[in-house]
Amino acid sequence: MLKTLFKKRPALGVGDTLYGAAVAQARQPAFYARLGVDDRIDARFELYTLHVLLLILRLRDEPGERGAQERGAEVGQSLFDAYVSSLDHALRELGVGDVSMARKMRSLGEALYGRMTAYEAPIREADADALADALARNVYAVEDRETAAPLADYALRARVALADQGFDAILGGPEWPEIAA
Question: What range defines the domain where residue 74 resides?
Fold first, then answer.
């Protein structure tokens, strides 16, 4: 039991690195200048969530033998854990106290799970219209699918681009597609 408790988990550091890559991409000025995403904390949360989900899907879908799939799932979980930890840290920096932290984290967790659920099926099915509907509501706070169509197109191109990259290439730094309106 103690061997497993103190076992090194190399995926933990990789999760932090991949989270950093997702955040760096989500902060690209083109999302705000070309695609019209408002530079607000909630819109940034949506872009972070979208990019983390794209990476998690790529990692969980690692082709090959069972060992490769388990490794992808482990790294994907580490990425998710790094994201949740970052949300916790951000709330604490904003001054959320210990008493209300559990409630705030539960609310953020529900939002995170809801977004990932809303985006996953359309991304997996390459359903641009359904993805644009979800992105319009969550990122742009509108009901007009056309507003979010360029972001949905970007996300679907990112899905394909990430799938074309090998596992080690993803771990070394994913290559994202161009952000085009």
Answer: 11-172
* Total structural domains within the chain: 1
Q: What pLDDT digit, counting tens, does each position of 75-86 carry?
A: 999 999 998 887
User: Two tokens at 99?
Assistant: 């008493």
Q: Tell me, what's the pLDDT at 105?
A: 59
The alpha-helical segments, DSSP class H, found in 27-97 are 29-33, 41-60, 66-93
Q: Indicate whether 59 belongs to any domain.
A: yes
Residue 4 lies in a domain: no
Quick check: 26 and 50 in contact, CB under 8 A? Answer: yes
Run of H or E residues at 140: none
Mean pLDDT across 5-29 = 80
Q: What's the rounded mean pLDDT across residues 96-117? A: 72
Quote the pLDDT of residue 69: 85
Q: How far apart are CA 76 and CA 100, in angstroms?
A: 29
Distance, in Å, from the CA atom of 30 to the CA atom of 68, rounded to the nearest integer, reads 34
φ and ψ of 120, to 5 deg = -60, -50
What single string gives the DSSP state of each residue in 47-64? HHHHHHHHHHHHHHT--S
Q: Is residue 6 part of a domain?
A: no
Tokens of 2: 């103690």
CA 75/CA 80 separation, integer angstroms: 9
